[in-house]
Design a protein that fits this description.
With 312 residues, the chain is α/β, with parallel strands linked by helices. 40% of the residues lie in helices and 17% in strands.
Length: 312
């Protein structure tokens, strides 16, 4: 591992501010932040990772509020390494099915290799921004009956704000009446103060990504209820920052003076997070039972009726 390569990649991530640049940086950091066996992308940090990995804990909190139920059809946009699918099957073996979409071929291959139940879980190579009637025949058949729950875990923070409305439109077209869209995403809650906070915030949450106001506005175009909860404390964000705020890791990843600058950025980043400039939000959006759409749920269609919590 070359510290000069680390220099090139961290500068590329800052300048390009795109997902592939971030993936390259994460791959470089692999000895420090490595994929865990439970299927979440950033899980192991030497021997200092908590007993319950934050990626898994985020989903446990989501399931506490709105669990998968027997007979549910589930859609996961941005399946990553397949951790959510494994948790859903373990939590409720009686779900009907889960469709996972993932555009990154490395992540998709890992998810398929660890498929917990091929009779219920199907993965497809697809960009969620192109989820419309132009999909291939097999995927079109998989989404044809609609879904009771659509998951987007740490996805919106990677999309440009101008693509948000189109994605929300597609979700509501595929969501059954009374169904939910369940989000976990990094969001900007208050405006950054000064250049330092803005720089740090832009490094954590993409400059063009939606903020909480954008997300609320986009979903509010539909007949729905929106409930929000701040789950920063149980997310990976504060823990990763505290682990990276370690001189030995910084020196191994980057040459001086970049390693010193990196430590200063991590230190300042903790302060920005504590001030609430950005946070990890859990959002549940419930589609009204009478909403117009392709998948209205009839009284005698055999689907089990259930209440969806509106207060997290």
């Amino acid at each position: 591992m070359s510290r000069l390569e680390g220099t090139r990649l961290v500068l590329r991530q800052i300048v390009k501010d795109d997902l592939e640049a971030e993936y390259d940086w994460l791959r470089y950091c692999n000895p420090f932040l490595v994929p865990g066996e439970d299927g979440f992308i950033v899980q192991g940090v030497w021997d200092r990772w908590p007993e319950v990995a934050p990626g898994r804990r985020q989903m446990e909190v989501l399931f506490e509020a709105n669990p998968p139920l027997p007979g549910d059809r589930l859609l996961n946009l941005g399946a990553g390494l397949g951790g959510l699918e494994r948790m859903c099957v373990a939590f409720c073996p009686a779900i009907e099915s889960i469709v996972g979409l993932e555009a990154n071929p490395t992540h998709l291959a890992a998810a398929k290799a660890a498929n917990p139940d091929p009779s219920k879980v199907a993965y497809f190579a697809a960009d969620v921004r192109a989820l419309d009637d132009a999909v291939d025949a097999e995927l079109a058949a998989a989404v044809a009956e609609g879904f009771d729950k659509i998951y987007m875990v740490e996805l919106l923070q990677d999309l440009p704000v101008e693509q948000l409305d189109g994605l929300v439109d597609r979700c509501f077209a595929l969501l059954r009446d009374g169904g939910t869209v369940d989000l976990v995403t990094l969001t900007v809650d208050v405006p950054p103060r000064g250049w330092k906070e803005r720089l740090i915030t832009d490094m954590v949450v993409r400059r063009a990504a939606p903020n909480l106001a954008d997300i609320r506005r986009s979903f509010a175009r539909f007949d729905c209820e929106i409930a929000e909860k701040n789950i920063t404390a149980v997310s990976s964000q504060p823990f990763i920052q505290r682990v990276l705020d370690d001189p030995s890791i910084a020196r191994a990843m980057l040459p001086w003076p970049l390693s010193a600058a990196f430590l200063k950025i991590m230190e300042a980043g903790l302060g920005v997070a504590e001030r609430g400039v950005y946070s990890v939000s859990q959002i549940t959006v419930t589609k009204a039972e009478a909403a117009a759409g392709r998948f209205a749920r009839g009284a005698d269609d055999g689907a089990a009726a259930h209440e969806v919590p509106t207060n997290l």
